[in-house]
Amino acid sequence: MKCLALSLVLVAGALAGCESPTPEPKPEATPKPATTAAAATTAAAAPTPAAPTAAPQAKGPFPESTNPAMQEPKKASEKAPAKFKAKFETTAGDFEIECTRDWAPNGVDRFYNLVKIGYFDDVAFFRAVKTPRPFMVQFGIHGNPEVSKHWRSANLPPDEVKGSNTRGMVTFAMAGSPDTRSTQLYINFADNSNLDKMGFAPVCKVVEPGMDVVEKIYSGYGERPSGAQGTIQMQGNKFLREKFPELDYIKTARLSDGKGAAAAPAGTGDAPKAGAKPTGSPSLMSQD
């Protein structure tokens, strides 16, 4: 019996010593790279970075007139014919304007002389308003400050309002009263006859189908350039081309009979004084 007990003890000890060791944990599987085909599919699906958009290039510059009256408004004082036409070549296309002196004699005489001396060459359409509704496009601040300073206070006497500011009519802008008209004009995009009672006397009209071209004049800046009229007067087209490069310009404006804009050496004039404020800056009333 003692031998049997001893044998059982030995067997139990042997079993205890033969326990299997605790298995070591297997390392986590490392993700395998995608197959070539899968990688190609993923690459193809990834969006391609957009190429940087090039900054818009300003239009022009275009040659300026060197007629001596450009810096001496008193030399541009001829009486206009009873009727005449002027052709405008612009960066948006060409169109023609027809004028009738009886509509507004003072304004028509001024427009006739401005066209004849080449004043509108390289002049920007700096204000084009089409929203919230079609309104008008404005031009007439000369791109050369040396020219502009001689004209911005060359104001005209008032004219009786005989016509109406309907689509295609061309009218002088003003700074609040009819005796502040000088060189700025606008073309009506729509029926703005509400301006008639404010003293805005139409002088000419766009000859159809010229309004198709006028409609193409860039209007993306809206009122923004017009808010800087003082700076435009002092810095001219340099400022406009830097800050508002997409504006359209008048390349040339000539009487349709081919006369006008005779070349002559331009005077140097006096340089604008630093900080000087422009006077007589016409600004058409808002559409509100």
From TrEMBL:
Q: In what residue span(s) does the PPIase cyclophilin-type domain sit?
A: 89-217
* Stretches the record annotates as Disordered: 17-83, 257-288
Q: Where is the composition biased (Low complexity)?
A: 31-56, 258-278
> Does the UniProt entry include the keyword Signal?
yes
Q: Give the superkingdom in one word.
A: Bacteria
Q: Report the enzyme's class at the first EC level.
A: isomerase
Protein name, as recorded: peptidylprolyl isomerase
Q: Name one Pfam family in it.
A: Pro_isomerase
Species in which this protein is naturally found: Chondromyces crocatus
Matches recorded under SUPFAM superfamilies:
Cyclophilin-like
Q: Which residues form the signal peptide?
A: 1-16
Q: What is its EC number?
A: 5.2.1.8
A GO molecular function held by the record: peptidyl-prolyl cis-trans isomerase activity
Question: Mind listing the UniProt keywords for this protein, alphabetically?
Answer: Isomerase, Rotamase, Signal
Q: Where is the composition biased (Basic and acidic residues)?
A: 72-81
